[in-house]
Amino acid sequence: MAMNNQAPAALVENQESTSLFSSLVSFFVPTAHAEAPEESEEPAEEGGEDSEEKDEEEEEEEEEEPEDPAPAIREECEQKTCAEHVHHFKHCQEKVEAGNGFPGEDCVEEFFHVLHCVDQCAAPKIFKKLA
């Protein structure tokens, strides 16, 4: 009989520790429901005109952003000032794609030269337009 008394006590202790653990987990980790119905909060609008005025004000506040001049300036620099670097890069690309280069060759160095040249050319012009 003594064993029967110990078994329920151990069972109760195990349930308490499990519920303690589950309550701690549920405290720190929120429960997510797969298909919970969406709560729609639609306040009762007494003045329909006020909401229309707010919508119009928001549209007026949203101004069109001016076009970014940087891509055009960078393209111009690439075609004029950095034409020699671009030529070397394209030649390297053609050589690698044709399989005439050495194994593992890539054109990263030439690409960096093109980017550096374009950045050096375009940066002063772009910042001049921003000022």
UniProtKB/TrEMBL annotation:
It is a peripheral membrane protein. GO terms for biological process: mitochondrial electron transport, ubiquinol to cytochrome c. Residues 68-130 form the Ubiquinol-cytochrome C reductase hinge domain. Keywords: Disulfide bond, Electron transport, Membrane, Mitochondrion, Mitochondrion inner membrane, Respiratory chain, Transport. GO terms for cellular component: mitochondrial inner membrane. Residues 31-78 are annotated as: Disordered. SUPFAM superfamilies: Non-heme 11 kDa protein of cytochrome bc1 complex (Ubiquinol-cytochrome c reductase). Belongs to the UQCRH/QCR6 family. This is Ubiquinol-cytochrome C reductase hinge domain-containing protein.
